[in-house]
Write a structure and sequence with these properties.
five-stranded mixed beta sheet; Glutaredoxin; two-stranded antiparallel ribbon; 9 helices; alpha/beta; 2 domains; 266 residues
Length: 266
């Protein structure tokens, strides 16, 4: 699965693409501002990033009013992901329109913005061009005593979460994942503990008050090797044919989880 590790930090490819595009945009705007001796261009670039970020987040929040109305503090949980490209474009357009009205030179500003957008598109298209990853041919034991088979005849989409009891973001998201898994009958869930024994997992679930349903045991990290994942937690979304459709690196929110599940069902 596409991800990049920078020291101790692991970023999904989409997040890396967004950060790289922002960095190139800011650098280009600063260089052009110095060459053209236009400090207004540099100031606009900073405001464009800020308002683009706010627009992206608020656009995502507007897509899932029920989720954020029930837990409004999650609006600020940006580390879980959840940003709208359309919202970002609206935010940048508003601040750019105001700056141009105030006298900002449009052509240099557009040039810097174009460089950032083009880099983002190139990186995102690189992600879509990667070869499809089929479902594993092996099964995994569940705490219930059954085995999770990826080639089940019902041909439903599958959500796989790789987690461990020692991983703080895994512990934060696991109750929500278990809750969503219990409420959905048309999607199969596998919450696969990585490299831990049955006793350790059972003890943790009992202390945390989390239902053991959908909990699997991946003692050897076979799923991480199969999908080439880095770090924990990771959430994988498989379409009804068992092909990997999307991967989310890091803690995931309820809104992002529901969004990706809805995409699988289209």
């Amino acid at each position: 699965m596409a991800a990049i590790q920078i020291g101790p930090i692991v970023l999904g490819w989409e997040r890396f693409a967004a950060l790289a595009a922002v960095a190139v945009f800011l650098l280009a705007a600063e260089v052009i501002a110095r060459v053209a001796r236009s400090p207004a261009l540099s100031g606009w670039a900073g405001r464009a990033v800020l308002w683009g970020f706010l627009g992206a987040r608020l656009g995502h929040v507007a897509q899932f009013p029920d989720v954020f109305w029930a837990e409004p503090w999650l609006i600020f949980a940006i580390w879980q992901g959840g940003f709208s490209p359309v919202g970002a474009a609206v935010g940048v357009a508003v601040v750019t329109g105001h700056a141009v009205w105030r006298g900002l030179a449009f052509v240099p500003a557009f040039g810097a913005l174009w460089l950032g957008v083009m880099l983002w598109l190139v990186l995102v298209l690189d992600l879509t061009d990667r070869p499809a990853v089929p479902a594993p041919e092996f099964g995994l034991p569940l705490l219930s005593g059954a085995e999770f088979a990826f080639d089940a005849p019902d041909a439903q989409p599958i959500v796989i979460n790789l987690w461990a009891t020692w991983c703080p973001p895994c512990r934060r998201e696991l109750p929500m994942l278990a809750d969503v898994a219990a409420s959905m009958g048309d999607v199969r869930f596998l919450l696969a503990s990585q490299g831990e024994g049955e006793g350790v997992v059972r003890d943790y679930l009992a202390r945390a008050g989390i239902d053991e349903a959908h909990i699997g045991l991946d003692h050897t990290g076979a799923l991480a090797r199969h999908y080439g994942t880095i770090g924990l937690p990771v959430t994988l979304f498989l379409d009804q044919d068992g092909v990997l459709a999307h991967g989310h690196v890091g803690e995931i929110s309820r809104a992002v989880l529901l969004r990706e599940i809805a995409t699988l069902s289209r």
